[in-house]
Amino acid sequence: MKWNVLRFDLDNTPFSPEKAFQKAILFCFSELMSRWECERGKLPLIESNKWFHVFKNNSNRIWQAFEQGEMDGTTYRRLRYCELLKRAGRRSI
């Protein structure tokens, strides 16, 4: 393949990975809310923007342990949700 132009984004202006991450996680949040409502008739007492903020902080806080091999990917994904659920007053999904 021949390239005539190579473009890259130095300052995340046209594409923000952080915004894409937030959009994906908020989509997951809405799916979980629907599942909790259908399966248990209860909704967690947390708004989506607060949910994302707590989720992002949990993810950032435990990322280093994952990156250094102290936990596997499954444990990392579960732990960041478990911490979030504790803040929302739930014990499990």
Structure, briefly:
The chain has 93 residues and is mainly α.
Description:
- This protein has helices at 17-40, 48-67, 73-88.
- It has a domain at 47-93.
- α2 (48-67) runs antiparallel to α3 (73-88).
- The chain has 93 residues and is mainly α.
Q: Which secondary structure elements does this structure contain, and how are they paired or packed?
A:
Elements: H1 17-40, H2 48-67, H3 73-88
Helix pairs in contact: 1-2, 2-3
Short descriptors:
93 residues, 0% strand
Instruction: Report how far the terminal alpha carbons are from each other.
Output: 47 Å
Number of strands: 0
Tell me which oligomeric state these chains represent.
single chain
Estimated structural class: mainly alpha
**Content of β-strand:** under 5%
Mean pLDDT across residues:
77
Note the total helix count.
3
Outline type: extended
Determine the fraction of residues in helical runs and give it as a percent range: 55-70%
SSE pattern = HHH
Task: Indicate the radius of gyration in whole angstroms.
Answer: 17 Å
Catalogue the unreliable spans. none
Query: Could you give a short account of the major beta sheet?
Result: none
